[in-house]
Amino acid sequence: MNHEPAPATITPYEDGPLLVRGDVEVRSQDGEVLRPGGTVVALCRCGRSAVKPFCDGTHKVPSRGK
Question: Domain-by-domain residue ranges, the chain?
Answer without folding.
Answer: 15-24+35-66
